[in-house]
Amino acid sequence: MKKIFALLFGFCLLQQLQAQGLHLDSFNIQRLQTNKTAMLVLGSWALGNIAAGAIAANQTSGSTQYFHRMNMYWNFFNLGLASVSYLSMKNGLGLSLAQTIREQHSIEKIFLLNAGLDLAYMAGGLYLTARSKNTLKLPERLKGFGQSIMLQGAFLLLFDGTLYAIHHQHGKQLDKAIEHIQLASTENGIGLVVRL
Fold first, then answer.
1. Which pLDDT belongs to residue 178?
2. Cβ atoms within 10 Å of 9's Cβ, excluding its own
3. 81 Ramachandran zone, left/alpha/beta (phi>0; psi -120 to 50)
4. Nearest Cα residue to 116 out of 170, 166, 160, 167
5. pLDDT at residue 175, as a whole number
6. Cβ(72)–Cβ(50) below 8 Å
């Protein structure tokens, strides 16, 4: 009986989602396309910073040289992350409703968590820059690295914040379709209510 109820519930839910114009495959493909585009943006940022850092680090000195070096170092990691993320994305077809909801919530949480980390990077960069004023041991390096980390953190905060907002807005389509379906108790037991 439980299996029949679950099957009926799932069928009604999928019918309601389709009636609302939300097809799970297209919903998932749109989420993944957003992520692919984002990884191309991150990879392009990384390549630009690596190239500019490699050139400028050899043509400058002092804190400016360290600034460009850190931009280069930092973005080797960004490039690796963007490449692995891009290449590991699946096509998004055939996910169940439960899997779709999990994936949607997961991606929103990832970008929100990353935004928090970006604030921590900026604070760390600010600390290094401030510390450079009170030390005699390699103050140019601390200043250059600190300024670079603040810049990279600011870019990543903009990047992650924008992606969180895009995914959150996209997820509202799913929420809107599901909110019309609820379980309710009746005099005969539990029933499925679909509000049109």
1. 72
2. 13
3. alpha
4. 160
5. 81
6. yes
HSE on the CB side for 21, CA within 13 Å? 3
The Cα 117–Cα 111 span in angstroms is: 10
Residue numbers of the chain with a pLDDT score lower than 70? 1-22, 180-186, 188-196
Asked if 29 contacts 92 with a C-beta cutoff of 8 angstroms, the reply is: yes
CA angle, 7 then 11 then 13, to 5°: 115
pTM above 0.85, yes or no: no
Whole-angstrom distance, CA of residue 102 vs CA of residue 100: 5
Q: Which three-class secondary structure string do you get for 84-114? A: HHHHHCCCCCCCCHHHHHHHHHHHHHHHHHH
Q: Are strands 181-186 and 189-194 parallel, antiparallel or unpaired?
A: antiparallel
User: Do the beta carbons of residue 173 and residue 30 sit within 8 Å?
Assistant: no
pLDDT single digits (tens) 162-183: 999 999 999 998 888 777 666 5
